């Protein structure tokens, strides 16, 4: 089995999720390559002990990412740092000749994303992808195959959302995601938006225009030192887009929601596709349940419910009747990255990781959304 040696820049929550996935690689018996964590980097060295205590393969710990990038033992990098560091560090990783999996949104703003794309274009030999795990859920993979088979007919409407309530409590202390200097003006769109855009963009549903409503609901929070500070970023974003279906030339509405304050939602990703021949919907609130309806003229319209098990794109040792969870979607996403790195192509259209080009589409959409909200108007999305 081929070993891909990884460095991790940013040792917080998602860095640990990747390392945990690497530790479970024996869960995927069909893979012919595997990741190995050999180096970790973070400005907070107290985070290193979890890694070194669990991974004997780690030979380098450093607070300086340039030292990690100079390490010839590192083949690829997972970078999970705050948004304001993406432009600098993502470019440095690529320019150092390392394959990259980077966290969304691939730059704090459009200018940063454009700069990252310059490095991507200059290094076509490298695999560069963006982390987005929800499309790897079995029910969503099934929806992807439905899109490929054109079972929906003419699209009537698409609705996609990522909703959670982590910021519902006004007494929750402020963190970097609530500060423009670190998170960016996009606010919740930068934080959550690629998760919502990934499947629609892969389907070819790219907005022509957008009307956005952005809300800053909790406008100040405790600073953790006994005082309060302003919350500067958008809590919730609702985007209404018009999209041209490539196969038919018809135009349909698509709503995209990224809400950090969604009462009743712990952490919910949702997709609904309504078409003239079939419809489908899925929510992580009911992770085993795929709802599907097909119909012909004169037919009764009745939703069918498929109980999805562990029916993964990259086979695992888990029995097919068992439930699929978030750590499994992380594992599948990383399997997709290593498969594409080894074979030079994704396993299938909807089993590939989010691409830099798709992040560029999201930046242009979010930039237009900011303009739309400021001017209280519909704004064309410019893709060049």
Reconstruct the topology from this structure:
Elements: E1 2-9, H1 13-23, E2 33-41, H2 48-54, E3 60-62, H3 65-69, E4 76-79, H4 86-95, E5 99-102, H5 110-122, E6 128-130, H6 138-148, E7 155-164, H7 180-183, H8 188-202, E8 207-215, E9 220-222, E10 228-230, E11 236-244, E12 251-259, E13 267-275, E14 278-283, E15 289-294, E16 304-307, H9 326-343, H10 356-375, E17 379-380
Parallel strand pairs: 1-2, 1-4, 2-3, 4-5, 5-6, 7-12
Antiparallel strand pairs: 7-13, 8-11, 8-17, 9-10, 11-12, 13-14, 14-15, 15-16
Report on this model:
With 384 residues, the chain is α/β, with parallel strands linked by helices. It has two domains: 2-130, Rossmann fold, CATH 3.40.50; 134-375, Dihydrodipicolinate Reductase, domain 2 (2-Layer Sandwich), CATH 3.30.360.10. 30% of the residues lie in helices and 26% in strands. It contains ten helices and 17 strands. It has helices spanning 13-23, 48-54, 65-69, 86-95, 110-122, 138-148, 180-183, 188-202, 326-343, 356-375; strands at residues 2-9, 33-41, 60-62, 76-79, 99-102, 128-130, 155-164, 207-215, 220-222, 228-230, 236-244, 251-259, 267-275, 278-283, 289-294, 304-307, 379-380. It has a nine-stranded mixed beta sheet. Strands 3-2-1-4-5-6 form a six-stranded parallel beta sheet, with helices on both faces. It has a two-stranded antiparallel sheet with strand order 9-10. The longest helix has 20 residues, at 356-375. The protein is globular and about 65 Å long. The N and C termini lie far apart (42 Å).
